[in-house]
Structures are given as structure tokens and as C-alpha cells.
Write a structure and sequence with these properties.
signal, Lipid/polyisoprenoid-bd_YceI, Polyisoprenoid-binding protein, globular, eight-stranded antiparallel barrel, TTHA0802/YceI-like_sf, mainly beta, single chain, Lipocalin
Length: 205
């Protein structure tokens, strides 16, 4: 009985929040139900996290932000969708200010010479209701190579804060930094780099 007395107000509060904010009820989690159209990257909630094995002891991470770009989404024919993004490499951040500055230098990313990394999709293949393999050309440190993203659709709907229709995805990839000429401290800092991407896209009106 005590549980019921406690749970009823909580349930009422949750229903009240949904009623006051109907956008909460509009989010779809089936990719086929998302709106087709042209989307722009929403940079405030888009992050690219990278992780490397440091001296065999820890997986050390950093993040890139301020991503820009477009997504042409066709939910009826996903294979015709296209993704193009640009990442300002100087946005790199770690928990060490010294390392962050070092990564921007010419022994690592050399951001003065190569200020942006880009990814342009060349093929999209659905592997499940909400999952796809996205192949494209990644340009980093002046080198362009084909790379593959494993992409998962999270949800889409009207953003309760800014009232814009938003679609969200997460993606993972693994690449070798030496393939792009970033070889400092290999193999003590792993050549293999794991990427985890949180991508938010706002639909153009």
C-alpha cells in the first residue's frame, strides 16, 4: 500500500510533464518513421570522442567539437542518403592542457597546416531496422582514405528546447592513425584509434 501511495504521485508528475511538454511524446525510435529532408549538424550536442591505449595501461580519451556539416536523409530509400561533415581539429580537448596543446602541434595533428578533418559518405547500407554501415572518405592530416562507420539511429522528433525537428545518431569506428601520417609514439601509444560519435542533426524548414 505504501508503494501505491508513493507511486501514484510520481506517475502523475510524469504524466503532467508529458502533458506540459508534448514534444516528449513525439520522439520516434524507428528510423523509418523519421522525417526525410536536409539536416544541418547541431554542433552543441555533437561530439567525436577518440580513445587510444596508453603504454598498455589505460584507454585514454579526448574529444573534438564544433562539428559542422549536412545530412541528406531519405528514410524511404536510405541508400540514397548522404552525409558530409567537417571537424575543426584545433577543437581537440583532453583532461591535460599540456597534452591538448601538444596534439595541436606539428608532431601530431599540425592544426596550423591541416585545420580541418572531413568525412564524405560514398555508400550507405542498412544492416537492421535502426542500423547501417556508412562508408566514406575521411581526410585527416592531409591524407584521404576510405573508412567505415557503424551507425545506430537513436531517435527523432521536435526538440523541446528550441522546437526544431532533430534526429540523433551514434556511430563507432576504428582506424589506424599511422595511415594518416600521425605516428608519434607508436606503438607506446596505440596506432589503433577507437572513435565514438554522438551526432545531432536539425532539419531545415
Amino acid at each position: 500500500m505504501a508503494y501505491k501511495l508513493f507511486s501514484l504521485p510520481v506517475a502523475g508528475l510524469a504524466l503532467g510533464l508529458v502533458a506540459a511538454n508534448p514534444a516528449c511524446a513525439q520522439v520516434v525510435t524507428d528510423a523509418a518513421q523519421a522525417q526525410s529532408g536536409t539536416y544541418d549538424v547541431e554542433p552543441a550536442h555533437t561530439q567525436i570522442t577518440f580513445s587510444v591505449l596508453h603504454l598498455g595501461f589505460t584507454n585514454y580519451s579526448g574529444v573534438f567539437s564544433n562539428v559542422s556539416g549536412t545530412l541528406s536523409l531519405d528514410t524511404k530509400n536510405p541508400a540514397t542518403s548522404r552525409l558530409s561533415v567537417s571537424i575543426p581539429v584545433a577543437s581537440v580537448q583532453t583532461t591535460s592542457a599540456r597534452l591538448t596543446d601538444e596534439l595541436k602541434g606539428d608532431q601530431w595533428f599540425d592544426t596550423a597546416k591541416f585545420p580541418a578533418a572531413t568525412f564524405d559518405s560514398t555508400a550507405i547500407r542498412m544492416t537492421g531496422k535502426n542500423d547501417a554501415v556508412v562508408t566514406g572518405n575521411l581526410t585527416l592530416h592531409g591524407v584521404t582514405r576510405p573508412e567505415t562507420l557503424q551507425v545506430h539511429f537513436i531517435g527523432a522528433g521536435v526538440n523541446a528546447m528550441d522546437k526544431k525537428y532533430t534526429a540523433g545518431f551514434e556511430a563507432t569506428a576504428t582506424l589506424k592513425r599511422s595511415d594518416f601520417g600521425v605516428k608519434m609514439y607508436v606503438p607506446y601509444v596505440s596506432d589503433s584509434v577507437t572513435l565514438r560519435i554522438a551526432g545531432a542533426f536539425e532539419r531545415r524548414d
